[in-house]
Specification:
Rossmann fold, 6-stranded mixed β-sheet, 21% strand, alpha/beta, 4 domains, 19 helices
Length: 617
Amino acid sequence: MGGPLTAPGALDSWGAMARAPLLQLSGTSLTHGGDPVLDGVDLVVQAGDRVALVGRNGSGKSTLMKIMAGLVEADAGERVVPPGVTVGYMEQEPTFEGFETIGAFAASGLPEGEGYRVEVVAEGLKFDPETKVSAASGGEKRRAALAKLLAEAPELMLLDEPTNHLDIEAIGWLEARLAETKAGFVVISHDRAFLRSLTRAVLWIDRGTVRRSERGFEGFEDWRETVWAEEDLARHKLERKIKSEARWAVEGISARRKRNQGRVRALQAMRAERAAMIRRQGTADMALETGTVSGRLVIEAKGISKAYGEKVILRAFDLTVLRGDRVAFVGPNGVGKTTLLRMLTGEVGPDTGRIRHGTNLEIAVFDQARATLDLEMTLWDGLVNDPDMKVSGRSDQVMVRGVPKHVVAYLKDFLFDEQQARAPISSLSGGERARLLLARIMAKPSNLLVLDEPTNDLDVETLDLLQDLLGEYDGTVLLVSHDRDFIDRVATTTVALEGDGKATVYAGGWTDYQAQKPVTEAEPVKAARPAPVAEPKARKVAAGLSFTERHRLEALPSIIERLEAEIARLSDFLADPELFTKAPAKFQKASEGLAERQAALAAAEEEWLVLEEKAAG
């Protein structure tokens, strides 16, 4: 834990009676397949707590939440919920057996006569309670599970990825609802804006340990980097001490054996301590390679429209996409974002108008429905049977950007281990399936990336890496997403589909779109409390800059952070006094890389200063 916990009913530092906890876990441990998932976890959730539960994909977030909900029994430890306290859990895959409609399922835990609560929540989450279970989509079922929890209004809500399958309007409604609740809640989410808006504390699960910070998600990344830096320093000091003691042992232990057995045992203990230090899981070794350079014009749409029966998807729409553009498509669920995307790529034809593609297009598609994943296949077979990745005559290698690579080695680049390689894709979590799909599309060169809801289920670190890769990608990106923060970080143009066939093009990302869109009678200035959109740290008004300069100013802080991190890693690598002797080629390459990044950092900082001064007038 990140700090001492107040015992139930104890006096706090002001002498007042501390709040009684809603839930407490003590000494909770769990192993899976011989590997520790949780190791002696202690945590307390108190009344009114608003907590983000964060961690890497596969770190055990959902498992920990199920233990908190009482749905999974730990190998060791104690779960305490005081008498009378109600704890509700949003099921990821609810069972609808015995219910005719999803509304009946959502109302099943309510007292007779209070079914209206579900209707109120269903309106905000935008689903029809009368939808038959047999006809409901996976997204509608997830929303019904969320509606069930909100309607029951327990004193502690456990929410596992509640924003998945919600459009931006519904996410805003959910934010406002949670902002007003008096209940405590713990939430797992990949949506940074959602977490920044709502949370006041963070539970961070990392290598089986859970730490707590009272700063909320806004301060999480700075806190995490501080913890990791302290770990690195402690490990470095321990390794230096072990080297010193080992040198002493080699040089003179035989002459002092009897008098120095204590020192020998201390050395053995230090080595055991080092072995027990579980190293952090690295970030996925993802890479995007641009194929043949496309023409300057990528897509030109003139007067295109589309309708299915009486439902109008699009009316007379024009769009020009040039090489290097990052175009985000936003709007409510069902409004036609994916249909427009398919029209622009040529998969679906328009009813009227024309679409012209530029030259040399090589398209890679990330599919929202994950339809390209056969869940019955193993990860291994899913890669070697992909025609775009298959190496002729080899069942253990795949083609990665033109170079053969062993299946397991490539899967390890995306944080899958050898045991998972032989497991069925159906056994993967949502985030792991997203990573596998990214592995497939990143294996081949492309110059047009089509990303339909790529952020669902991905952890923060993988989202950061994906954002950086898109920033460095020389090709063009078409993006459908409900993640406001990700759109702000990536998009240079936003196309808003607003219903009834209307689509409008705005410069910039989500925040720019919100600033530019006109206020209508249906959307007055004092509308019913839309949830605030937290702006990225780097975003600021820069009226004196051109559009290109403004976006460059917004991108530079993340570029500078990345260069600083790379410089720190290279400096640590070069700090090994034996590196030059053992691996002179690596030493030379790392030294050159360090010099290049230091020069790039100086240039980026200088550019940032110039643009800042220009923005300030």
